[in-house]
């Protein structure tokens, strides 16, 4: 299924550039160069004397002269400044790979950069030739490691500082940050490296490192001040940090406070920093600086798949309704546009959502939803009005629980109730979620698990049942750059306490389509009556993907999905349907754009020959 939210403009500029959502996907635009004074074009030849492809790539990527070769500089002075900056960047790139005796040579118009006058003029034919030669030299290892001051009793090996170990500048800086972090986790906000001595021994290709560290005293939080708030209440911002005065300082709590403020979605940036000194009471004042986002937004989107048809959606929202990050969102959609010509067979949805954070502490959120729908999926026809209200609470940064009260009125026609049946459901959905993925849209490591329980009573028909669901997904990146990522998902569910015909059709389990088993139609897996899906009382699904990043922009993803739906209360694994396919990912700053094509491996008589799906973010 193609899911594209907020698509308002697609912009093309000539034949060499393409932009979507305001993000340049490839090419350059002449408008980018319109502000360059006295534009001067240049051409780069780049040579790295190494057979190490990873080292060569890292060095070339560090060069702005090479990376921005298609953009002119501002005159001769601009070219000189860029060349000097490039040399520093290339040396830093060598240091980051533990090469401390490398040589970087840059020539402009045939003359070495060091031999050029500060006001040299390149008035010959353009583009001006620029030559960059890098001799990486030897790879160094760590030699003597000395930790002094308050770090004298710390084991350097615990942070990667060990004789014969990795001497890359990035590794040393990471070790420094780790040592300081360890001291800060003791409640010492002023911990810092006071001096660093690095000595490269070219004869032995070793790097001696001496660090002097001051821990500072243990302290609690002092007063929290906020800068940058205008529409958002300042006192509320302080409250949502959760940094209570007097409580022991913790860098982990500060990270959680920053993430909590960002999760409010009213700030585009948040920084939280300690003061440079303790206050008179011995506590550390905290400084919060924020930048606010636009509070009102609207958008439109489109959906499409060859098995589910096309759809349109629109929405309007406010991120800060009453000044304390209250969210309001109103949305509507029409689906199955290309699937039917009858207006009465289209899918219609309208809804309103409200959220208020911080109702019972900074880690809590109140939410309420009201939704009306008139839909015609393959399994049933339904008119429903649903409302719910509840609270979610973050136990930790990775763990969230929620509870709500929901009321659902529906009128449904399906294969088991062809004359229609009305329901009035009162339920209490309860959910626990664990999520430590490194990226929600494109994870490369971590795990996500969800457990869901919904006791339900049907007030019109006197039936009661409990819906149980569990889901888990795991991600494992291979290599330093996570070029390959193994991803897997497992999901199961069961409905207990009622027969299949007593459970409303929209509450039963279904499988098939872009969100579950690709290659099959939406709701296309499971029991049927006269070719029409009935849904089931249980289901099980699994998916495995190998995500390969061909380069920084393009990914290739072979995958296999499997699923089963049963009319019994427990899954029947003798009727598993399997689909397989391959996908392409275009990596963007807001997440990967996904296109998948899949085929059913054991199709039934009514199953499609293939499925095509597209969207934003990975499949799971």
Automatic annotation (TrEMBL):
Transmembrane segments: none annotated. It comes from the Bacteria. PANTHER family: BACTERIAL SURFACE ANTIGEN (D15) DOMAIN-CONTAINING PROTEIN, SORTING AND ASSEMBLY MACHINERY SAMM50 PROTEIN FAMILY MEMBER. InterPro entries: Bac_surfAg_D15, D15-like. Residues 320-620 form the Bacterial surface antigen (D15) domain. It is found in: Membrane. This is Translocation and assembly module TamA.
